UniProtKB/TrEMBL annotation:
It is an enzyme of class 2 (transferase). Its cofactor is Mg(2+). This is Isoprenyl transferase. It comes from the Bacteria. It comes from Phormidesmis priestleyi Ana.
Length: 263
C-alpha cells in the first residue's frame, strides 16, 4: 500500500459511508486518450484501486467493494480477458502479504467456479489467510453478475425448502440477503466513473437505498481528491429511507413545540 493519508478536514468522520462500492469504468478510454493499449489502463486502474483501499482504511471506511469483472465481460477479446485474469492473479500474489499486514479481509464475490484453477487457488489462499482480519473488508467482484447472484441465492433457499429445513413462509428479505455473496452488507455509497450512469448488473438487490455518485473521471484518474469529492457529495445528501424530508420533520417539530407552548 502507498503511504498513510489523513481524512480531509471538511469531512465529518461520524458521517462517512460504512461501505463504499465502486464500478471502476473507463480504463480503456483512459489508455486510448494516451495512445496506449487498453491493458495499460487496466494496469493503472489496479494501482488506483490499491490507493483507494488505502484511503478507506486510513479514513475509517470499513468496507470497499470493487467491480473488477462482470459476467458480461467475457464478451471482450480473449487477449484482454486473459490479461485481466493474469493481472488479478499477479496483484494477489504481489499484494497479499502487505494487505494481510494491514488487516485487510479479502473476499471475492461472483461465480468463482468460472475462473482458472490457478486464479481460484490464489483467491482461496487470500481469503483463507485474511479471514480473521478486521481493519477493512475488501470485496472484489470477479465473474460477478447480480442477476446470477440472485438466482444462486434463490436456488440455495429452494434447496432448504426441499430438504424441509424451512417452509416457504420463512423466505424473507433478510433470508435472501443472507444468501447473497455480500451476505447482508449493503453499500451506503456507489461510485461509477467514466460518465456512464448505469449499473451494468452490479449489486441490484443491495443498492436499493444506496446513494449514487457518478463522475466523468476515468477510473485510472480516480485519486484521493476525486474520492474526497465523492464523500463531500455523500455527506451533503439527505438519506430518508422512505421517511419524510428532514426539513418537513423540523418544521413539524417546531409547530408541535409552539402548539405545546400556547396550549
Ligand atoms: C473498466 O474499464 C474495467 C473493466 C470492465 C474490466 P473498461 O475496460 O470498461 O474501460 P472502457 O469503458 O472501455 O473505457
Ligand atoms: C462494468 O463496466 C463492469 C466493470 C467495471 C467490471 P463495463 O464497461 O463492462 O460496462 P458497460 O458494458 O459499459 O455497461
Ligand atoms: Mg467500460
Amino acid at each position: 500500500m502507498t503511504s498513510y493519508t489523513l481524512l480531509p478536514h471538511d469531512l465529518n468522520p461520524q458521517a462517512l459511508p460504512k461501505h463504499v462500492a465502486v464500478i471502476m469504468d473507463g480504463n480503456g478510454r483512459w489508455a486510448n486518450q494516451r495512445g496506449l493499449p487498453r491493458i495499460a489502463g487496466h494496469r493503472q486502474g489496479a494501482k488506483v484501486l490499491k490507493s483507494l483501499l488505502r484511503c478507506c482504511k486510513d479514513w475509517g471506511i470499513g468496507a470497499l467493494t470493487a467491480y473488477a469483472f462482470s459476467t458480461e465481460n467475457w464478451r471482450r477479446p480473449t487477449s484482454e480477458v486473459d490479461f485481466l485474469m493474469l493481472l488479478f492473479e499477479k496483484m494477489l500474489r504481489q499484494e497479499l502479504k502487505e494487505m494481510h499486514k494491514e488487516g485487510v479481509r479479502i473476499r471475492f464475490i461472483g461465480d468463482l467456479s468460472g475462473l482458472s484453477s490457478s486464479l481460484q487457488k490464489e483467491i482461496a489462499r487470500a481469503m483463507h489467510e485474511t479471514a480473521g482480519n478486521t481493519a477493512v473488508d475488501f470485496n472484489i467482484a470477479v465473474n460477478y453478475g447480480s442477476r446470477n447472484e440472485i438466482v444462486h441465492a434463490c436456488q440455495q433457499v429452494a434447496r432448504k425448502v426441499e430438504k424441509g429445513e424451512i417452509v416457504s413462509a420463512d423466505v424473507s428479505e433478510a433470508l435472501i440477503s443472507e444468501h447473497l455473496y455480500t451476505a447482508g452488507c449493503d453499500p451506503d455509497l456507489l461510485i461509477r466513473t467514466s460518465g456512464e450512469q448505469r449499473l451494468s448488473n452490479f449489486l441490484l438487490w443491495q443498492l436499493a437505498y444506496t446513494e449514487m455518485y457518478f463522475t466523468n473521471a476515468f477510473w485510472p484518474d480516480f485519486d484521493s481528491g476525486e474520492f474526497h469529492r465523492a464523500l463531500q457529495t455523500f455527506q451533503a445528501r439527505d438519506r430518508r429511507f422512505g421517511n419524510a424530508a428532514d426539513t418537513v420533520a423540523v418544521t413539524e417539530k417546531v409547530a408541535i413545540k409552539q402548539a405545546a407552548l400556547t396550549a
